[in-house]
Structures are given as structure tokens and as C-alpha cells.
Amino acid sequence: MTNSSAIAHDFLTRGRCETCPIVDMHGHYGPFRGVYFPDPYADGMLRAMDRAGVARVVCSSHTSLVDPERGNREMAQVIRDHPDRFLGYRAINPNYADQVEAEIARFPHDAGFVGFKFHPSGNCYPLTGDNYLPALEYAHQQRLIVLSHTWGASQYDSPEMLGEVAPKYPEATFIMGHSGYGEWDAAFGVARENPNVYLDLTAAYKVAGIIERMCSEVGSEKVLFGTDLPWFDPYYCIGCICFSHITDDERRNILHRTAERLLAPFLTGSQPPEGKQERRGSD
Amino acid sequence: MRFFDCNVGFGQPPNAPATVLRTAEELVRELDFCGVAEALVHYTAIEHESAQAGNCLVVDETADHARLHPTWAILPPQTHEFGTVHEFLADMRRDGVRALRAYPEEHRYLLNALTFGPLFEEIVPRRIPLMVGPHWAAITQLLADFPDLTVVIVGHGDWGDDRYFRPLVARYPRLHLDTSNYQTPDGIADFVGQYGRERLIYGSGFPPFQMGGALLTLARADISDEGKEAIAGESLRRLLREAAP
Question: CB-CB: which of B33, B185, B190 is closest to A243?
């Protein structure tokens, strides 16, 4: 093997890199209609994380993408059970406007949620639609993270649509789920032009050469590790990063540094939500 | 581990993907970067241009590279684009081709007994592996008609296709799966625990897939070292040894 990466060597030989704890910024939780998962619950996810040295994963439950009240409650329990390993995105279903307000109202009362999860394609509702506005405004006010599914040429969540939304809420941090898969030039442009927009490797990592392009055209400090766990084995994404033609410094940015910086405000103490009120301002 | 990648392509595709390896030399350098010893390869023109061009180019381009083993596309015998079935098999012997690939969508045919009966009746006893993408309905019918056909399903898996392939794996012992897109967490261990280590074949799916994903997933799978060696290359080497065009 001519790959001289020390990180790659560690993962190949030891299965993990002790100096490079991984933070997964795009996870889910629970079974999903069309997919076989050997174990989509906390024990199975933790097993996969432990083997690969994934320190934390930030998740939205699959249920929450359909029924936010039930799914976010499920996610909150997982976070309570494993506060050092799981953080959450509170999912919003914009097709039920009254539930959007209810989820925002609940946000301060559950520990471990760092922001919102939007899945415009899954909900067949455009990212630019009015029913997302209350959550976007709240994320801006409270300096939260918004992870939105994006996909190339989508009528609901194309990179251009995120590029339309993100500048209006500069205090919110936007993660472009899947990096606008397939519409790479547009996605990279949005990430370059907006300081609050980050690329997400989930699913995109497997496209040969795309990690190199992200690092050279946007910068490794704006690329985040993600797996859709329990969809995809962390080792697959790690392998794509390890065997990309980038430096170990860039690998560290992707695997943990940038995510740690984004999550730092949410990880002070044992993070009861009230403890963050001073930083976030009043509700 | 001595990796033998069953699913690699090279050559210039019509679009301009993020990575293009145009020559066998470039492909060998990338295999070296990833620590892969050998590969069963196709030329990308096989998908995007024509089966004829791809079959010729892959032989020409790999002639000086003993680590690269060419694969060919099949076409319906009735159109005689590769001569008779026996002429096609003779050409395989001449050019050292020991595995075939099917592209029912790109090459626009029905992958069934009506179309390919004359060819498959010959390749079944010769144990020539047929590599095909996850066309589940066609594969299910094909295996019903040719239960002893050696099949390697490549590139399955974005949405965890186990519900499709496990019934087939349980029924047909000559059915294999590549690991290029098998990303299910603990999926390899789960599969091997149920069906043994002989049915999975390491493949990267490059291009369009990055080479390292499937490689590290197998290298760190929660199975025995013997199981990893089998999947990494031993099973494919055995299949190719058995193949007798």
C-alpha cells in the first residue's frame, strides 16, 4: 500500500485512531420502511460506533420525519439514556404547521438537541416554504444547527434552495445533508459563499474523487463526517476518507475537528436546556 | 489481506466525474495506493459506448498488466454481434477472459432464458461467472431457469437490499454478492453468520465508488481472519480457477 496516511494505517490495522475520535453529524435512529438493518436501535448503533471509534452521533429518529411528536420523544429518550454518545436534531414536518410550533415550544425542555432536522424531499415540501420559517427563525435566534436533506436537482431541497435560505439566518448553522448529491458545483458554491453552510459527507463520500474536490474547492474545515447510521457502516465513510488523496490534517478536520467546534456550545456541563438560556437568549 | 477486487473499471466516461482513471497504468497506481493486489476489470466504454468497444479495449489495455483480469459484456446470441456462442467462448479463451458482465438496461435486452438460453446453457457447466447489477426481478427469474448459473451481483445496496437477495442466497448456492456497496452496519458479519464466508466477494465498484469504502469495511468486519481472506480474494480466485471457457 502506497497510501502513507498514519490515520489510514491506524484504521486498517487497529480499527480506530486514538488521536482522531470521530463525530458523526448525520445519524438517524430506528427501523425504516424499505431497509433491512441488523440492529437499528441504540445497542446496535453503539456497537458500530465503538468498533470504529465514533465518539458521538447527532441523530433524528426515522419516526420523527413522519410524526415529529412521537419521533422526537423517542429520540429524547435515547439521548437521556446515552447522553455522552447521542445528540439530537428535532425533526420538523412542515406539512403540519401546528406541530411545527409545538416542536419549537418543546425545544428548550429536552436536553441534547442541537437544532432541527428538515427533510423537504421526504415530506414533499420545499425548503423555501413558509412552514419552515418559524423553525428557521428560532434556529437563528438560538444559534442552533439545521441539518437539511439536500439532493441535486430536487424540487424540494436543491443546493440552490439552501443557498436561498441560509443567508437570511446567519446565526444558524446549516448542514447541507448529502451535499446536494449530484449537483456538486452548485453545492460547493453555496458552501463557499455562505460562512454558515457546511457540506455533509453522508452518501456523498462514496463518489470517487468527491472528497478531494470538497477539500480543494471548499476547504476541509467545512466538510463534516456523516453516515446516516443505522443505514451505513461508519467504516465505509472512514475508508473513503482514509483512501482519498488528501492530507491527514484535512482528514482530522473532516473526522472530528469541525464537528467538535460546532457542537462545543451544546456540550457544556450536563447540558440541561435551561443551562443554555444565557447563551441562547430568551425564548 | 490479499485483496482481489472483482468490480473495477477504467477509461474515460462521457460525463466528467470527479475522478477519471483513463489508463491501466493509472488504475494500477490507484490499486497500489489502496493495497489491492489484483482486479477483475472492465473498460467504461462497455457501459457508455458499446459492448464491442469495451470488450476490445479492456483486452488491449490490460495486456501488459498481469494483475488486471479482463471481463466482457454479453449480448443476445440471436443478434450474432459476437459470432456464435462457441466462437464467443473461443474468443474468451484466446483473450484470457474468465468472467462476463450483463448490462440489461444499457444494452437494452431482457436478461432471461428466452434471450440467453443458448449462451447460459454453455456457461453453466463451464462455471463462468456472470456479473450483473441488482436487477432483482430478472435475476430471480434467471436463477429459476438456470439454478446452477454462477452469478455475482455487483453494486447492490444503497437501501440495504437484503430483503431481495437473502431468499435467493438461501436457494441458489452458486449465487454470490459483491461488497462494493454493502454498507449495512455489521452487514458482512450478519451475512456471514447466516450464509458462510464463501458467498461474499470483495469489490470496490470503482468507478463511480471510491475504492477505500468497501476495503476498510471488509478489513474491519467483525468476522474471522479466515473469513476476511475468503471475501477479500480467495473466493474470487477459486471462482476464476473453476471457470473454463
Answer: B33
The answer to whether the CB atoms of B18 and A11 lie below 8 A apart is no
Any domain includes A281 = no
ipTM confidence score = 0.96
| Beta pairing class for A173-181 and A223-224 | unpaired
Q: How far is B173 from chain A (nearest CA, A)?
A: 22
Number of domains forming the structure of chain B: 1
CB contact under 8 A, A36 and B160: yes
pLDDT exceeds 90 at position B87: yes
Is the Cβ pair A240, B222 closer than 8 Å? no
pLDDT at B55 over 90: yes
Say whether pLDDT at A280 is over 70. no
- Paired with A116 in beta bridges are A90, A146
Q: Is B12 on the interface with A (CB under 8 A)?
A: no
User: Does residue B231 sit at the A interface (CB-CB below 8 Å)?
Assistant: no
Q: Please tell me whether the overall predicted TM-score, pTM, comes out greater than 0.90 for this model.
A: yes
Rounded-to-integer distance, Cα A24 and Cα A87, Å:
10
CA distance B196 to chain A (A): 16
Sheet strand arrangement including A22-29: A22-29, A54-61, A86-91, A113-118, A145-151, A173-181, A197-200, A223-224
Q: Contact at 8 Å (CB) between B212 and A211? A: no
Give me the CATH number covering residue B140.
Answer: 3.20.20.140
Asked if the structure places residue A275 within a domain, the reply is no
Domain of residue B108: give its range.
3-242
Whether residue B213 and residue A205 make contact (CB cut-off 8 A), yes or no, is yes
* Contact between B217 and A236 using a beta-carbon 8 Å cutoff: yes
